[in-house]
């Protein structure tokens, strides 16, 4: 396989890993006002992702570094054209991380409430803006002959992109709430299952509309099949949650998110940044990639490093696999 094609799909894999793993972190953060009746409930929710959220977040760093190394033209155009939304994502991630560490440093309820609010915002903003960014990449943006973005911020806030943002926000929210059912016990687990059911209906409608729009306007035969499979897995996850099959529901949600990302990348291929104003200005895997030598070097690096990362992450999840509940928080306090 040509290395440029290989790295296009490696980048897709990196973003699948990021959206699946940090996606449920976002969902847990957004669930605080719905499932956190008191401080103990909120601590239970935060502790479900406490040991893994920072590890999950590193996937976006690896994805960005891989994008820079393999497709520097794509990286430059994306990060300059989408500077404001990507900056907002970065600020939100920083605020969320700081809040996880600082909310328990003082006993005052007002202190904790302030940082809980930052966790909610710091989870919702990236969940929404990542969908806006990737929907715009698929739709295409205004580029000049030098592949520079020449549109405005308002061009990025088009109906298709906004629907993409709503879809990712809802997918991550349900993904996170299902994760709560998998990781907690007692009343909060039951409430999370009911919330996942209610939110799942809205999510199915939003995702089906977005995937249909993507397929009809920008899709290929391959992306259409992937979109159909993503929709099927989302419905199957909803039904599994109704039956109380928590592991299956979570696995199917992870598969749904992965297939949505694959749908978007399949709609792009072989382009990486379509020019909506002039197709001749589009970035493709051919004119946006690094040299063959560079791709060869980073391929060996990925071959050596990626199995280590996956094994370490798998080991981390295995160590922290047990459920937690209010009793564990009360025990920790005393």
Describe the structure.
It holds the Pfam family Cyt_bd_oxida_II. Belongs to the cytochrome ubiquinol oxidase subunit 2 family. By secondary structure, this protein is an all-alpha fold. The chain has one domain (3-329). Helix content is 79%, strand content 1%. The chain contains 14 helices and two strands, in the order H-H-H-H-H-H-H-H-H-H-H-H-E-E-H-H. A two-stranded antiparallel sheet has the order 1-2. Helix 1 crosses helix 12, helix 6 (83-102) packs antiparallel against helix 7 and helix 9 packs antiparallel against helix 10. The N and C termini lie far apart (59 Å). The model has no long low-confidence stretch (mean pLDDT 93).
Mean pLDDT: 93
- Uncertain ranges: none
The termini sit apart by 59 Å
Oligomer: single chain
Helix content: over 70%
Layout: helices, strands, pairs:
Elements: H1 3-30, H2 32-35, H3 39-49, H4 53-70, H5 72-81, H6 83-102, H7 109-139, H8 153-156, H9 159-183, H10 187-218, H11 221-243, H12 246-268, E1 271-273, E2 283-284, H13 292-319, H14 326-333
Antiparallel strand pairs: 1-2
Helix pairs in contact: 1-4, 1-7, 1-9, 1-12, 3-14, 4-5, 4-13, 6-7, 7-9, 7-12, 9-10, 9-12, 10-11, 10-12, 11-12
InterPro entries: Cyt-d_oxidase_su2 (IPR003317)
Organism: Cryobacterium lyxosi
Main location: membrane
Brief overview, please?
This protein is mostly helical and 334 residues long.
Features:
Cytochrome d ubiquinol oxidase subunit II, globular, heme, electron transfer activity, 14 helices, single chain, mainly alpha, about 325 residues, two-stranded antiparallel ribbon
């Amino acid at each position: 396989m040509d290395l440029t094609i290989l790295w296009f799909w490696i980048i897709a894999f990196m973003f699948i890993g990021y959206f699946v793993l940090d996606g449920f972190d976002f969902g847990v953060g957004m669930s605080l006002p719905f499932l956190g009746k008191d401080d103990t409930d909120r601590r239970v929710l935060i502790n479900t992702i406490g040991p893994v959220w920072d590890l999950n977040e590193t996937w976006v760093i690896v994805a960005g570094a891989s994008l820079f190394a393999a497709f520097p033209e794509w990286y430059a155009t994306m990060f300059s054209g989408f500077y404001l939304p990507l900056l907002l994502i970065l600020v939100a991630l920083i605020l969320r991380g700081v809040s996880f560490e600082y909310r328990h440093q003082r006993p005052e309820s007002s202190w904790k409430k302030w940082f809980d609010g930052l966790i909610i915002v710091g989870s919702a903003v990236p969940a929404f803006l990542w969908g806006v960014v990737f929907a715009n990449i698929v739709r295409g943006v205004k580029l000049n002959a030098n592949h520079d973005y020449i549109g405005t911020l308002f061009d990025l806030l088009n109906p298709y992109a906004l629907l993409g943002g709503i879809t990712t926000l809802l997918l991550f929210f349900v993904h996170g709430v299902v994760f709560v059912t998998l990781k907690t016990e007692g009343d909060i687990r039951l409430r999370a299952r009911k919330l996942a059911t209610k939110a799942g209906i809205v999510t199915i409608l939003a995702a089906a509309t977005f995937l249909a729009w993507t397929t009809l306007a920008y899709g290929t035969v391959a992306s259409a099949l992937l979109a159909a499979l993503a929709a099927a897995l989302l419905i199957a996850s909803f039904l599994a949650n109704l039956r109380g099959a928590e592991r299956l529901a979570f696995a199917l949600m992870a598969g749904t998110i992965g297939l949505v990302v694959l749908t978007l990348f399949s709609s792009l291929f072989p382009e990486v940044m379509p020019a909506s104003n002039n197709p001749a200005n589009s970035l493709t895997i051919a004119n946006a990639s690094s040299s063959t030598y560079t791709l060869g070097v980073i391929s060996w690096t990925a071959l050596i490093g990626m199995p280590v990362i996956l094994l370490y992450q798998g080991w981390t999840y295995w160590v922290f696999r047990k459920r937690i509940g209010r009793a564990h928080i009360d025990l920790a306090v005393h």
